[in-house]
TrEMBL record:
Source organism per UniProt: Hymenobacter antarcticus
Keywords attached to this entry: Hydrolase
Short name of any one Pfam family annotated for the protein: CBM_4_9
Protein name, per record: CBM-cenC domain-containing protein
InterPro entries found in the cross-reference section: CenC_carb-bd, Galactose-bd-like_sf
Length: 167
């Protein structure tokens, strides 16, 4: 079983790692004191992110594109392990790029809609998507990555979130 998990994860390890967090620590991630880091369930370790009635958005990874790579970033892969209670519970993993930390004008928005991607419920499942960024992005733009509840009434969980530059 470990070998099959490793092979599946190996496909996601190509490119340059931006971040990977299993939420045992939240270095590089920030958020409100909304309690989105939880011990209710986790894919690895003791902690994961949770959104639901108690939290609309999870802790957020935030970085300036120019600090992530000296070359212009063309594609980014977002992957995570998610736990969704049913096909009636929406939620999304979001990759958003704004003009700058001071100016939140959107430059790019992409997401992994869990209602569309998740086929197994009440168990951990890996999801992944590679996003092609527009040519208009600049090294001063701010990238954010987070879990969004999208109006669901039950908790949705994410763990072992990874971002990788693929170009």
């Amino acid at each position: 079983m470990l070998t099959s998990c490793a092979k599946k994860d190996d496909a996601l390890t190509k490119g340059i790692a931006i971040t990977h967090n299993d939420f045992e620590s939240v270095l590089g991630w920030n958020g409100n004191t909304d309690g989105s880091v939880t011990t209710e369930r986790a894919h690895s370790g003791k902690y994961a992110l949770a959104v639901g009635p108690q939290a609309e958005y999870s802790y957020t990874y935030s970085s300036i594109l120019g600090k992530m790579s000296t070359a212009k970033i063309r594609t980014i892969t977002l992957s995570a392990w998610v736990w969704v209670p049913s096909d009636q519970v929406p939620g999304s993993l979001v990759l958003a790029i704004a003009h700058s930390p001071e100016r939140s004008t959107p430059v790019f928005y992409g997401d992994i809609s869990l209602a569309k991607e998740v086929k197994k419920f009440k168990e951990w499942q890996q999801v992944s998507r590679t996003f092609t960024l527009p040519d208009s992005i600049q090294d001063t733009n701010q990238l954010k990555c987070y879990l969004w509840r999208a109006g669901n009434s039950e908790n949705v969980y994410a763990d072992d979130i990874a971002l990788r530059i693929e170009n």
